[in-house]
């Protein structure tokens, strides 16, 4: 018998190795978020609400700001083919007002969140990095604002600032003045933890200045808890704006706000429930969407929850 050369062939049954999850925090978080049903559902709702707020005329054939579309003879009518959500006390179409009211809520929530994140984040970065008298001074100022009850403080601010006619700017100012200390505390704690890490100490040893260390080394590694709180604050600010408008110190007519619509309809609720129920439903869905988004982001970015 002649010796035959045996050649090894690759095993047909060998399974390819599974792709490993990304190693960095942000790519790993995005990997988890894309597979989170809560995040996808919340993001889809938020995207729809943003589109409604930006282009309300695409969803409503009636311009809610046009007084000629209101008909007093049809005040408090029920749901029909003309008024899908019924009509309010002035005979205005409730559906169009709900659609156009989304813009105020989204704008207030987004702008107030941006202001509080920038102010609180910057002051928290300074307090945590420099410490000593800077930390003491900023922390004491923040504690003064923490001692003010949120709704009572907002009522007082709007009574002074928006005394003649409270608008979006006045509401954003009131909410931002009372919310930035929370972001400061969270950023300060994250900075204090990060500044003692080896890579920060190495940057100091190499002669990096304080500005470079804060911006290039500390800030990117301290943003995670701030992003989580910022996402959740969006829903909180939207609910707060509705509460202030309901109490009569927030958004005023002729602007349209879900809280203002609920306030205008509460006295005739038993006679015509639709003008109150639909704004309340949209408000609840909006707050729920941002809360779901915040929960998903927290679960993805918090290593303790992995």
Automatic annotation (TrEMBL):
Q: Does the keyword Transmembrane helix apply?
A: yes
Q: Name one Pfam family in it.
A: OppC_N
Q: Which domain of life is it from?
A: Bacteria
* GO cellular component: a single term: plasma membrane
Species in which this protein is naturally found: Acrocarpospora macrocephala
Q: Which family does it belong to?
A: Belongs to the binding-protein-dependent transport system permease family.
Q: Name one GO biological process term.
A: transmembrane transport
As for subcellular location, the record says: Cell membrane
Q: Which UniProt keywords apply?
A: Cell membrane, Membrane, Transmembrane, Transmembrane helix, Transport
The protein's topology relative to the membrane is: Multi-pass membrane protein
Xref: InterPro entries = BP-dependent_transpt_permease (IPR050366), MetI-like (IPR000515), MetI-like_sf (IPR035906), OppC_N (IPR025966)
Q: What is this protein called?
A: Peptide ABC transporter permease
Give the stretches traversing the membrane: 38-59, 104-129, 141-161, 167-187, 222-251, 276-297
Q: Which PANTHER family match?
A: ABC TRANSPORTER PERMEASE PROTEIN, OLIGOPEPTIDE TRANSPORT SYSTEM PERMEASE PROTEIN APPC
Domain (ABC transmembrane type-1): give its ranges: 102-294
């Amino acid at each position: 018998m002649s010796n035959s050369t045996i050649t090894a062939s690759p095993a047909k049954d060998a399974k390819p190795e599974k792709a490993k999850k990304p190693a960095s925090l942000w790519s790993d978080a995005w990997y988890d978020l894309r597979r989170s049903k809560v995040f996808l559902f919340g993001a889809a709702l938020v995207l729809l609400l943003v589109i409604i707020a930006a282009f309300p005329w695409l969803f409503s054939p009636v311009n809610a700001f046009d007084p000629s579309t209101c008909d007093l003879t049809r005040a408090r009518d029920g749901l029909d083919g003309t008024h899908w959500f019924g009509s309010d006390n002035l005979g205005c179409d409730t559906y169009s007002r709900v659609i156009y009211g989304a813009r105020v809520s989204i704008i207030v929530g987004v702008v107030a969140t941006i202001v509080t994140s920038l102010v609180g984040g910057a002051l928290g970065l300074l307090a945590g990095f420099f410490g000593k008298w800077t930390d003491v001074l900023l922390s004491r100022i923040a504690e003064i604002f923490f001692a003010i009850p949120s709704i009572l403080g907002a009522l007082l601010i709007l009574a002074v600032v928006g005394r003649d006619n409270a608008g979006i700017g006045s509401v954003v100012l009131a909410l931002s003045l009372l919310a930035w200390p929370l972001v400061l505390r969270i950023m300060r704690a994250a900075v204090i933890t990060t500044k003692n890490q080896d890579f920060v100490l190495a940057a100091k040893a190499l002669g990096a200045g304080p500005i470079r260390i804060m911006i290039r080394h500390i800030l990117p590694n301290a943003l995670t808890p701030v992003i989580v709180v910022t996402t959740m604050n969006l829903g909180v600010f939207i609910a707060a704006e509705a509460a202030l408008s309901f109490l009569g110190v927030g958004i005023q007519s002729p602007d349209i706000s879900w809280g203002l619509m609920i306030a205008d309809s509460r006295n005739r609720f038993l006679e015509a429930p639709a003008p109150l129920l639909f704004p309340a439903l949209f408000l609840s869905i909006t707050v729920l969407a941002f809360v779901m988004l915040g929960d998903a982001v927290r679960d993805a970015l918090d290593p303790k929850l992995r």
